[in-house]
Every structure is written in C-alpha cells, then in structure tokens.
C-alpha cells in the first residue's frame, strides 16, 4: 500500500501551545528580559517566536534593540530568559494546565491503537512533561535536546517518526505554530493545525482547538 494513502498510525504532538499553554510563560520570560534591556517587545512580536528555537527567538527580539550584542552576550541573555521561564514552569505549571480536550483525545487515540509522540523545539520539554504529569506517557519523545535544526526544519518530527519506527507519511503532526506547520509539510507529514495556526492554508486539517477534535471521536 502507498504509505501516503494508508491509515494514520501515530499522532505527533507539538508541546507548547498544543498540549499545554507554556507559550504564556515564554512571553512573560521574554518580556521581562526585553524590559530589562530597554527593547520594545509585545504580543504581536511574540507570535513570531512560536515553535522556533531559543536563540532564534532572541534574534527576533533583538531586531528592535537599540544596541548590538556580542555572541557571548547573546548566550547570556538567552540563559537569563530561560531562568525566568523555568522559574515560572517550576512555580506555576500544574497538571490542570493541560489544555481542554487533550487528555480525552490522548486516551481515545490510545484505545484505537494509535501511537503517540512529542515533537517539540523546547529543551525544557522533559521538565514540562514532568510538571504536567505526562512524563513517560508518550511512545516517543523528540525535542530541542535531540536536534540541531529547529522548526521550520522537519528534523524534530522526522526523529519522532523514526523513534516510533514509522514512515513520516503515517504520522499526523499536531501544531499551533506556522513554523511547525511548515516543518511537517517539509517532512512529508500530514498536519492538523490548531490555535494560532488554526487557519494556516498549508495544513492538511484545521481546527480551533483539540477540545473540538476530541468530540469527533
Ligand atoms: P526552550 P514547541 C517551542 O516549543 C516554543 O513554541 C518556542 O516559543 C520556544 O522558543 C522553543 O520551544 C524553545 O524552547 O527555550 O524551552 O528550549 O512549540 O516546539 O513545543
Ligand atoms: Mg507550539
């Protein structure tokens, strides 16, 4: 059977903005850094950071910086923001923060024998899964610690498929970011776009949120 027309055998979930709203904590961390450095930063610019790596996010934030930074200074800035972000993860993040519909959807997919994986750009992915009570839940995890090229490169999703032992075309990616939708398409994978990417024309399927998707089962 042509894998591109065969049944979907796995769902690969982006983490931030799909499983849990850590995107708000990223925003607060970057906003604190930007304010301290005197850089204009708002939620509109923050939308461009969805799904892209920590250093690429910093590069976008510094586009409006009044001064230039050396490479060492940039590394220090990214480390500082990550400290602010981790502080929020460790003090605020709870299992109750899992987005509506997610647990119901995961359970229903499991019952149907569908494999489940994480495909996230975040190096904090293991901490986040631990905090929300989903450590060890997924059949495979691929995150920012395992890759060299961030979304929109497909590396993280291709790695997740490989860890599952499946062809990319047999895995449905679930994404909330334009960079993630682009990555899935580049990897030859069907993609369900939700949330901020919910109207992305490149997506195979689109939905406002996973609560709606869970109700389809
Ligand atoms: P970290 P995802 C991404 O997670 C975030 O959307 C993005 O805003 C962040 O810059 C990136 O992870 C790296 O995160 O600084 O924790 O390594 O959406 O791919 O799950
Ligand atoms: Mg995301």
Description:
- The chain is α/β, with parallel strands linked by helices and about 220 residues long.
- The protein has two domains: about 10-20 and about 100-215, HAD superfamily/HAD-like (Rossmann fold); about 25-90, DNA polymerase, domain 1.
- About 40% of the residues lie in helices and about 10% in strands.
- It has nine helices and six strands, in the order βαααααβαβαβαββα.
- The chain has a six-stranded parallel sheet with strand order 3-2-1-4-5-6.
- Strand 4 (about 170-175), helix 8 (about 180-185) and strand 5 form a beta-alpha-beta unit.
- Helix 1 crosses helix 4.
- The longest helix has 22 residues, at about 70-90.
- The radius of gyration is 17 Å and the shape is globular.
- It binds 1,6-di-O-phosphono-beta-D-glucopyranose (B16) and magnesium ion (MG).
Provide the residue-averaged pLDDT: 95
Kindly name the structural category. alpha/beta
Strand order of the largest sheet: 3-2-1-4-5-6
User: What's the CATH architecture of the largest domain?
Assistant: 3-Layer(aba) Sandwich
User: What is the CATH H-level superfamily of the largest domain?
Assistant: HAD superfamily/HAD-like
Major sheet description: 6 strands, parallel
Q: Quaternary status of these chains?
A: single chain
N-to-C terminal Cα separation, in Å?
A: 26 Å
Please, how many domains? 2
Q: Helix count, per DSSP?
A: 9
Query: Which regions contain 5 or more consecutive residues with pLDDT less than 50?
Result: none
> What's the level 1 CATH class of the largest domain?
Alpha Beta
């Amino acid at each position: 059977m042509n894998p591109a027309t065969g049944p979907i055998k796995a769902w690969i979930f982006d983490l931030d903005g799909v499983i849990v709203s850590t995107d708000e904590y990223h925003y607060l961390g970057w906003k604190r850094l930007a304010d301290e450095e005197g850089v204009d930063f708002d939620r509109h610019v923050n939308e461009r950071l969805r799904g892209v790596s920590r250093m690429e996010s910093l590069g976008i934030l510094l586009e409006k910086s009044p001064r230039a930074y050396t490479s060492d200074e940039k590394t220090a800035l990214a480390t500082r923001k990550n400290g602010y972000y981790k502080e929020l993860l460790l003090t605020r993040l709870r299992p109750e923060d899992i987005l509506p519909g997610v647990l119901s959807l995961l359970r229903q997919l499991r019952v149907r024998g569908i494999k489940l994986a994480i495909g996230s750009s975040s190096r904090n992915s293991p901490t986040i899964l631990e905090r929300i009570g989903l450590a060890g839940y997924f059949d495979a995890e691929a995150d920012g610690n395992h890759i060299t090229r961030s979304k929109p490169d497909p590396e993280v999703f291709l790695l997740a498929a490989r860890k599952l032992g499946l062809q990319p075309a047999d895995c449905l990616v679930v994404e909330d970011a334009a960079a993630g939708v682009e990555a899935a398409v580049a990897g030859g994978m069907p993609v369900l776009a939700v949330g901020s990417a919910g109207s992305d024309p490149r997506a195979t399927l689109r939905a406002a949120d996973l609560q709606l998707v869970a109700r389809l089962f």
